[in-house]
Specification:
Layout lengths: L20 H8 L3 E5 L2 E4 L1 H20 L3 E2 L5 E3 H7 L1 H4 L5 E4 L5 E4 L4 H11 L8 E10 L14 E11 L2 H21 L4 E5 L9 E8 L5 E6 L12 H7 L2 E3 L15 E16 L3 H4 L2 E3 L5 E3 L1 E8 H11 L1 E2 L2 E2 L10 E5 L5 H16 L4 E4 L5 H11 L3 E5 L1 H6 L2 E5 L5 E4 L1 H9 L1
Parallel strand pairs: 3-7, 19-20, 19-21
Antiparallel strand pairs: 1-2, 4-6, 5-6, 7-8, 8-16, 9-10, 10-13, 11-12, 11-13, 13-16, 14-15, 17-18, 21-22, 22-23
Helix pairs in contact: 1-9, 2-6, 2-9
The structure holds one RNA strand.
Length: about 425
Amino acid sequence: MRLSHFYLPTQKETPSDAQIASHRLMLKAGMVYQSSAGIYTWLPLGLRVLRKIENIINEEMDAAGCQEVLMPTIQSAELWQKSGRLDSYGKEMLKFKDRHDRELLYGPTNEELITEVFSQHIKSYRDIPKNLYQIQWKFRDEIRPRFGVMRGREFLMKDAYSFDIDYEGAKKSYWRMYQTYLKIFKRMGLTAIPVRADSGAIGGDMSHEFQILAPAGESSLYYEVAFESLDFDDPNVMDEVVRLYAAVDEKHDPQSCPVPPHQLKQSKGIEVGHIFYFGSKYSEPLGAKVMTPSGQLVNVEMGSYGIGVSRLVGAIIEANFDGEGIKWPDPVAPFQVGIVNAKTHDPKAVAFADAVYEKLKEAGVETLYDDTDERPGAKFANMDLIGLPWQVIVGAKAVEKGIIEIKRRSDGTRQELDLTSFINQLAA
RNA sequence: CGGGGCGUAGCGCAGCCCGGUAGCGCGCCUGCUUUGGGAGCAGGAUGUCGUAGGUUCAAAUCCUAUCGCCCCGACCA
């Protein structure tokens, strides 16, 4: 993509509304535009990151045997009456009426709807277990939205729902998701700590929140220091993770905590995922029953599994930035490479940079080519701000010797080499 | 929902107390110079001063109402 054709409204000055780093950087880097309190327009750069995150989630969910569906954002209030949540969910739920005076709502979550969808066709134990998920916009009318996309009113969420014949099956589904979540967050370059949690309005017995450690986080949690030295590539890591202690502060009782104080750490965390087991809480009132092998009709056993997709964009930035801007982990970066031609006045350098761009494109590398007439300093500052993992700088040596300068955004290291070597290095 | 703050050019702000018809920086446009870390000079464009009433000869400024946004708290993924 040529920058001259790309809509990237970066800003030099810090928007006054932004309090935390990720919010400030997302506005400065031209990723989002605030349309209302807690409601954002995603601009091209931000949307690319959102899509990267969605893709990782899709891949891992599919690999875990789940199937994607897409439910509507607007739901009938009638359904929520059956589950009893129409009133209990409270003012966070946005309700309105259509022209026929029928009450509708903008879905804050989808347990009711998915249960109905499921029970339309699934009647036998032979058809389960199943795990259906979607990535869809939700609306929760927060009292006070804040921190940009980290606590918006409208937000993109992956919500999955498992259906099993009995508790044993449901437990298996639960732990499969637990493991899948660790993989998903790891692929995004994050270390997520699964903490025991309250199940809140969703309800249920077994519940874990997945927290990213960050000072800007809104949750307070306690965890065993051993979490910090976990090797997530170790195949046995699951046993280890499950054994370790971690809890949100409401669930943490210093009296009964099994971990001695010197092995316990306290931190702020950003909740990026939450999984629940809730049995027949929704299947019973909504009549979702299946036949067992012995011919009995039983309420299906359910769990639900959320990931804050749009929140993750903010959370990843909170975990990866410096004074110059964002430092995207490779798997979620909007582009892998940014090309800066530092000699826009030199036709040979322009031709060289054009060629570099074409070759990277041919090699299938996602590239943003700053082909504008800005001065080098402005281009460098802009590249650092938007935080692409690699910067390719075309300067005097490119024209003379065919050597390009490569800057790694994450640690600032630079190397000089030819383009082919760089492409090979990317492929490795 | 309680407490506080702010709405003036695309962004950041001054002007308001003490009414006299709007300004600064960045950005944007033109020209010349410049060209490896957000350039310099010269010229230029851009405003229903959030909205609606009111007071006044005259309102960005004073009064009333209203809408929006932000911060702290409580609440929440």
